[in-house]
Write a structure and sequence with these properties.
The protein has 454 residues and is an alpha/beta fold. The chain has helices at 13-22, 24-27, 39-56, 69-73, 87-100, 110-134, 148-158, 170-181, 214-224, 230-234, 255-268, 279-282, 284-289, 297-319, 332-345, 391-413, 416-425, 432-445, and strands spanning 2-6, 31-35, 62-66, 78-81, 140-143, 164-166, 190-197, 200-208, 211-212, 273-274, 349-356, 369-377, 380-383. It has a six-stranded parallel sheet, with helices on both faces. Helix 1 (13-22) runs parallel beside helix 3 (39-56). It is globular, with a radius of gyration of 21 Å. The protein starts with a strand and ends in a 9-residue tail after the last helix.
């Protein structure tokens, strides 16, 4: 059993590898391969991975690092994809170009998300093609690469038969915060219903051991005027961007405003719990106002998680001392490893996945790539039908969906007009002229990454 991690040089790789290793018997895994184009970066991360496998856990799993596709994929059963095309330098450009024009500057939302999507579409098709060529015929690609909504639409359009499941850890991060706020330690007993697009959805119910948590959660959010656990709020240092505390990584630095925004949204629309990313669409003006065009979240990540990991590696190489706090970034490694277990062992466990609608939400297009719960077994997702959704949510989703569809079509066709239409239609952009100004600046910034637009 071979698992390949595409984007092996990511700061998330150590956490994913540990999650795999802790489940080695359920996965029957014998080898983990790290695959990245940046050999120097990957080799450094591999130092941590080797320590996890052979020193911390002493599990005997073979580790291979490579920059060669054939070596990476041959006979692999699972491919975990977490590419960041252009790395954080391009994320910084995505965010700052948008903000310079008075629009939301965010990694996966608005114009920044569309820029990132256009960098990722064709590299993801290459992953699919290489896996199809070299991996086992029954392989599965589990994709974390952002922006998942745009990537999944491109996969649907260009590689409809690919053995790929697109997933996102943000709803899980939200449930982690909900569990901590409600003082629930065994979060695996929390069951929720959810509908939307990726980074654009709503929790319609959250239950713990059959008990409805939504009334207590609404009360908590109203009283605290934020959705963050009381323990986090008491320790402000844990919420600083460069903190190495065990607080949820999605709660640090500028994320504070996002959790505050949940309270503000629910003051107006209290029935459902919104995904945090809806702040960027429903409170565009306010989020631009408290953003710093000279210091965005990309800078926060580079100065904290990125720096902490590589400083920790250098310290380990120099002294042999380990600071485990800097090696693990969030619990999303557990999510992807558990998904692999469900596929391999046909468990029919419940997960939230991005999949073709096919009637799961009756008043959304059949071919929309929606994010909904599904039971996962050896044949992939068995979607749990959600029923018709309210007009407000449907209207927002249709605008976002059509923006993403136009973007994918424009990227594939090399159509400047369609990409401009996608930027213009996006709810984070106030006018056609602003959309054009941002797009033209992003074309310059993305030379060598984007297809030529005519």
């Amino acid at each position: 059993m071979i698992i390949t991690i595409v984007g092996g040089g990511s700061t998330f790789t150590p956490g994913i590898v540990k999650s795999i290793a802790l489940r080695r018997e359920e996965l029957d895994v014998t080898e983990i391969r790290l695959f990245d184009q940046d050999k120097e970066r990957q080799d450094k991360v591999a130092v941590v991975v080797d320590w996890i496998l052979h020193e911390e856990l002493k599990c005997g799993i073979k580790l291979t690092t490579t920059t060669d596709a054939e070596t990476a994929y041959t006979d692999a059963s699972f491919i975990f994809a977490q590419m960041r095309v252009g790395k954080y330098a391009m994320r910084e450009q995505d965010e700052k170009i948008s903000l310079r024009h008075g629009c939301v500057g965010q990694e996966t939302c608005g114009c920044g998300g569309m820029a990132y999507g256009m960098r990722t579409i064709f590299p993801m098709m290459q992953v699919i093609d290489d896996a199809d060529k070299y991996a086992r015929p029954d392989h599965w690609i589990l994709n974390y690469s952002n922006p998942a909504s745009i990537v999944s639409e491109a996969c649907r359009k260009l590689r409809p038969n690919a053995r790929i499941i697109n997933i996102c850890d943000m709803p899980i991060a939200i449930i982690d915060v909900v569990a901590a706020a409600m003082e629930i330690s065994d979060k695996k007993n929390i069951v929720y219903d959810y509908f939307g697009l990726n980074h654009f959805g709503w929790f319609t119910s959250i239950e713990y051991k059959g008990k409805d948590l939504m009334p207590a959660l609404r009360k908590y959010i109203k009283e605290q005027e934020i959705l963050l656990p009381a323990a986090y709020l008491k320790d402000k240092t844990a919420l600083s961007a460069n903190s190495t505390s065990n607080a949820n990584r999605h709660s640090k630095g500028s994320w504070y405003y996002v959790w505050k925004g949940i309270y503000e949204i629910m003051e107006n629309f209290p029935e459902m719990l919104p995904n945090t990313y809806l702040n960027y669409y429903l409170q565009q003006k306010e989020f631009v106002e408290h953003s710093d065009v000279n210091h965005t979240r990309a800078n926060e990540v580079m100065e904290s998680r990125e720096k902490n990991l590589f400083d920790g590696i250098d310290r380990y190489l120099a002294t042999g001392e380990i600071d485990e706090n800097v090696f693990y970034a969030g619990s999303h490694g557990d999510w992807i490893a558990d998904l692999a277990i469900a596929l391999k062992n046909d468990t029919k466990a419940r997960f939230l996945v991005i999949t073709e609608n096919r009637g799961a939400i009756p008043n959304m297009p059949y071919d929309a790539m929606v994010e909904v719960p599904a039971y996962i077994g050896k044949n992939g997702p068995e979607v749990i039908t959600q029923g018709p959704i309210p007009l407000f949510q449907q209207g927002l989703m249709m605008q976002q969906l059509n923006s993403e569809k136009l973007l994918v079509e424009g990227c594939i066709e090399g159509s400047y007009e369609k990409v401009l239409q996608a930027f213009t239609l996006n709810k984070t952009v106030p006018s056609m002229n602003v959309a054009k100004a941002i797009l033209d600046d992003m074309i310059e910034a993305n030379k060598g990454y984007w297809p030529e637009l005519k």
